[in-house]
Amino acid sequence: MGGPGPNPKQRAAPIACVPDDALVEMFGLLPANSLHRFKCVSKAWCGLVTDPLHRQRYAQTLAGFLCADAADGACESCRRVGGGGGESSRRTCPHATTRRFVNVSGMAEPHPDASFAFLPPPPPPPDSTEAFRDVILDARDGLVLLACVRGHEAPDLHPPACYFVCNPATARWATVPGSGWVPSATQRTALTYLLFDASAPHVFHLLQFRLDDLDSVRAVHTYSSADGSWTDRAGAWLDGGWRDWGRGMALIQPGTGAAVARGALHLVVDTDGTSGPNNLVAVDSEGRTRRAVPLPRRDVVEKDWHSVFVARGSRSQLHYAMCVRPPHGRLSEEAPLRLLVWVLEDYDAGEWVVKHDVGFPELFGSGRFACQFRVEYSVVAVHPDGNWVFFVRHWDRKLVAYDMDRWEVRVVADLGPGGGDLGDELPVPYVPLYKESAALTDS
Is the pLDDT reported for residue 410 higher than 90? Predict the structure, then answer.
């Protein structure tokens, strides 16, 4: 048997001997989950990890959510128009929505400015009869995309007056002009996404997909912060787009998220217009379709299923959640809907592997063996460094987290009463980005 172990001072000596500069260099090479574990080693290490002077060099993970709230009442001008400021005027006031940051990681203050008070006011409407409001469309690796839309119009109904791309951690922003698209009888709505990767923080791109009255994509426009202009990519889309894979249809499935991987935006798409979502489509910054990865529904025997959500999860792998019915019989507590979480284990080979399988009663409580996607619940995030899936329960307005390792559901936040168009803006996952970007010029 050996002698007694070293006393605490002796054990702490190697840590104390490592210079701070060397520790900072080492911390800069760590993934976010390892970095945050090292905060627990000592107060000195915790100070180095959380020091604002160093954190721009460190990997970051999910800090929380930007959540919309209903304000207590309409603004003064809308109360005058609405005749007294009752419920009807509050619900039609474009300023009656505020935002707050919901901390899920123990992120130290200061928290990001969820109100975006650092942004300039939206441009005045041309006819001066209705104000503009800001709506969050997308968020990616620390940047947030907002659209300036008229009053209470849906953000995809008409072209936004302009866009803002901003970094709440640094209070920097850039204005993106409208694309110039004018709706026609056959192209009535547009969906806009942010393409950004924190590993290349000095440029961002926007991809605007224009839809016809059947919700099929008919045109693509792209914006690059490098040259500050929109480009019509109709030719690129027709030459290498989704039309080549089916019957001229390409439907982006609503509410199913988006993910950036390998420099491309990945969307859940129905590429034949008949059988539901069947591909994860990768589109690059020039509107070209790089590839389509078949979704794993072909490995599910039961055909009664629907798409739920795609996101970049742990190990930077693409995660895909889907809902399936039991193989036989009617839905019941013993045979409920189930949520399957898949991981794209081999991107090049398109190989999906089941990561988790859970019944709806375990997710949403006993007696809830079937819930309608986007009506009773929505998936809003997959944790980028942990085995967590985040949901909104619409019936009680709760943001909840499901721990796939412990099979536990935890309430993260009460989202308030909702109402009006509030439900159109779901909680947005937020990962801080402390690096400065030349693409955000405050202009």
Answer: yes
In a domain, 373, yes or no: yes
Q: What's the average model confidence in pLDDT over 349-356? A: 95
Report DSSP state, residue 383. -
Question: Residue for token digits 């309409």?
Answer: 74
Shared domain check, 223 and 341 = no
Q: With 70 as the cut, is the pLDDT of residue 244 above it?
A: no
Instruction: Output the furthest CA–CA distance in the chain (Å, rounded).
Output: 88
CA distance 389 to 230: 35
Phi/psi of residue 214, nearest 5 degrees: -100, 10
SS3 395: coil
pLDDT in tens, 158-176: 778 899 999 999 999 999 9
List CB contacts of 16: < 8 A, sequence separation 6 or more.
Answer: none
Report the C-alpha gap between 209 and 216 in whole angstroms: 9
Domain count, the chain: 2
Dist CA 124 CA 132 (whole Å):
7
d(CA 373, CA 356) in angstroms, rounded, equals 19
Segment (H or E) for 9: helix 8-17
High-pLDDT (> 70) share of the chain, %: 79
Are 280 and 366 members of one domain? yes
Q: Are residues 195 and 141 in the same domain?
A: yes
Q: Which residues contact 131 (CB under 8 A, 6 or more apart)?
A: 94, 95, 122, 125, 151
Q: Which of 32-36, 103-107, 139-143, 328-332 is most confident?
A: 139-143
Task: Specify the pTM.
Answer: 0.86
pLDDT exceeds cutoff 90 at 146: yes
* Closest by Cα among 239, 222, 240 to 231: 222
Does 4 have pLDDT greater than 80?
A: no
Same domain, 153 and 241: yes
276 CB-near residues (< 8 Å, 6+ apart)? 270, 297, 306, 307
- Enclosing domain of residue 382: 256-425
395 and 353: one domain?
yes
Question: Is there a single domain that holds both residue 214 and residue 300?
Answer: no
**Amino acid at position 59, single letter:** A
